[in-house]
Design a protein that fits this description.
alpha/beta, Aspartate Aminotransferase, domain 2, 7-stranded mixed sheet, 13 strands, binds pyridoxal-5'-phosphate, PyrdxlP-dep_Trfase_small, Kynureninase, pyridine nucleotide biosynthesis, hydrolase
Length: about 425
């Protein structure tokens, strides 16, 4: 039993967030009507506006047929452009540096076609040892694609023995020591497992100074922490939209390409008809004329019905703003951390996410001993709390500043006191 339910309620009154904009799943257990949803780092909740906006696009198809490409309130032909400004502001990009397209890993491949160009002795790709598996598969297959042995071409950054997260100084040391051999640095902005926020500007600076290209996977960073990709001189980045960005399962991904690479005629790129300048697209010419925009990395005409939910969600982020969200996120996650400290003081559970709020986003990861999946099940089926397990031993909980409450945090801590036995 953990005290402070009244305090949680009071904090929610004073610092309410924007929960009313979202559908919160009903609880199937416990004492409360709604789930305490702390898995927005895995799949964000559905904005209430999404359904009507999506239906409007579907209606345009019913009413207009093929003419919907050019008519209606949101003609399809330039549809991806409706997402550009909001996506760009979200990550601190110039409008020409951002585009929403495809899925995350597909985009990483398309970007590596352009930005992983091994040659001579400079052929390493630097990733985190704890990289998301898809990223690990992607970089290994890119190395093989270039005829390289992935076991040698992929350099994995490991935390120090006994530590769970990377230290910036250690990453910088590797970049300095191996600099001349590194072709590409591709790291997660926020690590999916530990919740560690990397020092993106410092690592980007060091990687570029070493002569490498520096790209970021921002799957767990976009919509979670403020980003200034243009000012930080990041070469490229990609992020999915179904985690903090609440755009629905498998939603389209976002891509950033720095201005200095736009319109570069020497750059290699896989192209299709959407890579070319929209003004000349229907000339159906045999040679593409790519615009000096990230749009040039598009290949196919985009799936309009999948873009709608991303558009709706990005507009919410644009209205509320990452500054406000980050401030509430810091308060909310700090509050959860205090409660978890009470829980863990007497139980065999530890927080592995960095303690410094500037080195993490919303997520706190707990090492819970074996059986993280079983614990997550019991949280849900006995207490109506949804957190996310990574087997064997990590439970991830992310109070999302748009819709999570202090009371959700309290419910997780309270449920853990019932489910994890005291050993001290
Ligand atoms: C969620 C996530 C992915 C998922 O990749 P998809 O291509 O969207 O299936 C990849 N990388 C990271 C770091 C992630 O967090």
């Amino acid at each position: 039993m953990i005290h402070g339910e009244d305090e949680a309620r009071r904090l929610d009154t004073g610092d309410p967030g924007h929960r009313e904009l979202f559908h919160v799943p009903p609880a199937t257990a416990g004492r409360y009507a709604e789930t305490a949803y702390l898995a927005g780092n895995s799949l964000g909740l559905q904005p209430r506006a999404t359904r009507d906006e999506l239906l409007a696009d579907l209606d345009a198809w019913a009413r207009l047929g093929v003419e919907g490409h050019l008519e209606g309130t949101r003609p399809w032909l330039p549809y991806h452009e409706y997402l550009t400004a909001t996506a760009a502001r979200l990550v601190g990009a110039l409008p020409e540096e951002a585009v929403v397209m495809n899925s995350l890993t597909v985009d990483l491949h398309l970007l590596m076609v352009s930005f992983y160009r091994p040659g001579g002795t400079r052929n390493l790709i630097v990733v985190e040892d704890g990289a998301f598996p898809s990223d690990s598969y992607a970089v290994r297959s890119q190395a093989r694609f270039h005829g390289l042995d992935p076991g040698r071409a992929v350099l994995r950054l490991k935390p120090r023995p006994g530590e769970d997260t990377l230290r910036t100084e250690d990453v910088l040391a590797v970049l300095a020591e191996q600099g001349e051999r590194i072709a590409l640095v591709l790291l997660g902005g926020v690590n999916y497992l530990t919740g560690e926020l990397m020092d993106i500007p410092a690592i980007t600076r060091a990687g570029r100074a070493a002569g490498a290209v520096v790209g970021w996977d921002l799957a767990h960073a976009a919509g979670n922490v403020p980003l200034e990709l243009h000012a930080w001189d990041v070469d490229f980045a990609a992020w999915c939209s179904y985690k903090y960005l609440n755009s629905g399962p498998g939603a389209l991904a976002g891509v950033f390409v720095h201005e200095r690479h736009l319109g570069d005629p020497a750059i290699q790129r896989f192209e299709g008809w959407w890579s070319t300048d929209p003004a000349t697209r229907f000339e159906m010419a045999p040679v593409s004329r790519p615009p000096a925009r990230a749009d040039a990395w598009q290949v196919s005409n985009p799936p309009i019905l999948a873009m709608g939910p991303v558009r709706t969600s990005l507009e919410i982020f644009d209205r509320v703003g990452m500054t406000e969200l980050r401030a509430r996120s810091t308060r909310l996650t700090g509050y959860l951390e205090r409660l978890l400290d009470e829980v863990t003081a007497t139980r065999p559970v530890t927080v592995i996410t960095p303690r410094d709020p500037s080195r993490r986003g919303a997520q706190l990861s707990l090492r819970v001993g074996r059986g993280a999946g079983e614990l997550a099940k019991r949280l849900r089926h006995e207490h109506g709390v949804i957190a996310d397990a990574r087997e064997p031993d990590v439970l991830r909980a992310a109070p999302v500043p748009l819709y999570s409450t202090y009371h959700d945090c309290w419910r997780l801590a309270e449920a853990l006191t019932h489910l994890v036995e005291e050993t001290r």
